[in-house]
Amino acid sequence: MQIIHTIQKLQDVLKPHRQQKIALVPTMGNLHDGHLQLVKTAKQHADIVVVSIFVNPTQFGVGEDFDTYPRTLTQDCEKLQHIGTDFVFSPSVDEMYPNFHEHPPKTQVIAGDIAKILCAKSRPTHFDGVGLVVTKLFNIVRPDVAVFGKKDYQQLAIIRQINQDLNFGIDIIGMEIVRADDGLALSSRNSYLTETERKIAPMLQQTLQALKAKLINDAELNLQKLDDYRNQSIALLNSQGFKVDYLDIYTQNLDELNSGHLNSGHLNTNLVIVAAAWLGKKARLLDNIEINLNQFKPTKN
């Protein structure tokens, strides 16, 4: 495994492999089992796997945790070597954004309305930074395949949009969420949780599961009842020590639900429950559950 810190060096070492299938797994490091599963999936779909480790400043807002975000490159590389990664690309900020502090990048890559909802309401510049860094990585690596986790559901949708609209032609693979034994979605920011908060954290997933059950079991579900169930879930989480940023129900394309999605008193579409909630002073937890309500419709005799 080679660890590479410059764009030119990475492009040089990838040149002999251009006739092979190359996969990219973008990360910000502090790798956990969820990241490693992304890499294992990439290995199944490509001959060469590049993992980027870069804490991207353009996706952090003022007062966010860019300076304190865990940086564990040595440990990360040990894990990646163990599972057979080919190349690690770990550039500096100035390598990705020359003279960043004096001249922040002027170019933006914005994915339209999908980048204005959910996380964007509390982190208004976040997805501008995501769009820019992912576009740069796609141009630097020129992968055939890129693998992302579904925990960041909105981010994955935005990356798919960018890939389509900018004609990268990359096969974007979305991996299911990897969870701890108690159901908590694995995240680098879980390390911010205190011991007490870590015991409470699985309630986010449990609440989403309970909401899913309500949607499935209500044969006369409508938009008003759906909103009532959503508000009950938010109130429950807030009462247990969370500070809910959002908990919403969308189609899996992240279109807002409306009466056009109703059919014979039941939603006839694939849905996703998406949530973000603060727990404690530093940990902002993300989670989601996809639902196909059609599969739960009773069959007629």
UniProtKB/TrEMBL annotation:
Entry EC no(s): 6.3.2.1
Principal EC category: ligase
Pathway assigned in UniProt: Cofactor biosynthesis; (R)-pantothenate biosynthesis; (R)-pantothenate from (R)-pantoate and beta-alanine: step 1/1
Tree of life domain: Bacteria
Keywords for the protein's UniProt record, in alphabetical order: ATP-binding, Cytoplasm, Ligase, Nucleotide-binding, Pantothenate biosynthesis
GO biological processes: pantothenate biosynthetic process
Reaction it catalyzes: (R)-pantoate + beta-alanine + ATP = (R)-pantothenate + AMP + diphosphate + H(+)
Repeat listed as a keyword: no
Molecular function, one GO term: pantoate-beta-alanine ligase activity
Matches recorded under Pfam families: Pantoate_ligase
Functional summary from the UniProt entry: Catalyzes the condensation of pantoate with beta-alanine in an ATP-dependent reaction via a pantoyl-adenylate intermediate.
UniProt subunit comment: Homodimer.
UniProt similarity note: Belongs to the pantothenate synthetase family.
Extra remark: The reaction proceeds by a bi uni uni bi ping pong mechanism.
Protein name: Pantothenate synthetase
Source organism: Moraxella macacae 0408225
